[in-house]
Design a protein that fits this description.
The protein contains twelve helices and no strands. By secondary structure, the chain is mostly helical. It is globular.
Length: 330
């Protein structure tokens, strides 16, 4: 990736010509969002008709029942704790595979990337890559490798906790959830093959592993995957508690053990690109079909408060982050 010289190495990054994203790729997230909200409106309208109401009236009733001050008191500490845990994971991985950077130096840049992530998560990753290139001379693809490593571990940590939740509530969950342990077993086998590949035990003549994009995976030891899972897990467990309490504010009572199986699935949906986290909201309505209006507003409020409050945290740090990323190098 292109950029100015780094403070330490004094070398310039090779410039690469920009490649325009195809129109269909730019439109796809918006098309997914439109389809999701059309489906949500259909479900809410159907639920309202069963009660002899229109959709707008039913949504208004749900909004009026929520204690917004209590919800804010719950969500603000949750968002702050997620920010710290998220930054801790990023700091740990970067220090393993890229450069020695202090935790306090990571915080402002990570917070600022939440602003960019409102529209596109990849923009946030690009800002982090630029920061590490300017500060430490780390090639952009190697930073991308660390981000890919984190995403890889996040898949496994969500799948692991979803499996725990399903096993705890096996007889009380929809039968569709019973496939989760089988998926986890297949994923565990894939992990073993993945480790063997990057250690050269599988396909030893393959050169794919030598690319910068797989830099982190070449260096990673098996225990480092586990450390990321352990560091990331408090964010999900806190989320289970927060979502259980918040859901009750919207008039839906659910046991915490059931939420442990639901939240990882919804978090998978939240990772699908598109504004407003529409896929995650649809999943709440799908998981709670008897409370379509409550689940739709719950998902809309929870996920979008989360991303916009995190962006607000980024605004606190944005001036320092701008100096770190775009300011003149030493």
């Amino acid at each position: 990736m292109s950029g100015a010289s780094s403070n330490q190495g004094g070398t310039e990054a090779p410039s690469t010509p920009g490649r325009r994203t195809p129109l269909w790729q730019r439109l796809l997230p918006w098309a997914i969002t439109a389809a999701c909200f059309a489906y949500l409106w259909f479900r809410i309208d159907t639920a309202a008709a069963r009660q002899g109401k229109d959709a707008a009236s039913l949504l208004g009733e749900v909004f009026s029942r929520v204690s917004w001050s209590r919800l804010l008191a719950l969500m603000i500490p949750y968002s702050l704790s997620f920010f710290l845990i998220d930054s801790l994971v990023l700091w740990r991985v970067i220090n393993w595979f890229n450069a020695r950077v202090s935790f306090l130096d990571i915080l402002p840049v990570r917070a600022s990337t939440y602003i960019l992530s409102i529209l596109n998560e990849q923009l946030g990753k690009g800002a982090m890559a630029m920061y590490l290139h300017r500060r430490e001379g780390v090639p952009g693809w190697q930073v991308g490798s660390s981000m890919l490593f984190i995403m890889f571990c996040e898949f496994y940590y969500l799948l692991a906790w979803a499996t725990v939740g399903v096993l705890l509530r096996w007889s009380h969950l929809p039968t569709e959830f019973h496939v989760v342990p089988a998926i986890a077993a297949i994923a565990a086998l894939f992990y073993l093959l993945w480790i063997a590949y990057f250690r050269g035990a599988v396909l030893p003549r393959s050169t794919l592993r030598d690319r910068d994009l797989f830099h982190a995976f070449r260096k990673a030891k098996p225990w480092q995957y586990g450390v990321v899972l352990v560091l990331r897990s408090p964010a999900l467990l806190i989320g289970v508690v927060v979502y259980t309490v918040a859901l009750r504010m919207f008039g839906i009572d659910m046991e915490m053990s059931a939420m442990l199986s639901y939240v990882p699935v919804v978090f998978f949906g939240a990772a699908v690109p598109g504004p407003m986290r529409s896929v995650a909201i649809v999943l709440w309505v799908t998981l709670l079909p008897d409370h379509a209006a409550e689940a739709a507003i719950f998902g809309l409020v929870m996920h979008n408060f989360f991303i916009f409050f995190n962006a607000a945290i980024g605004l606190v740090f944005v001036r320092r982050a701008q100096r770190e990323i775009f300011g003149a190098s030493d």
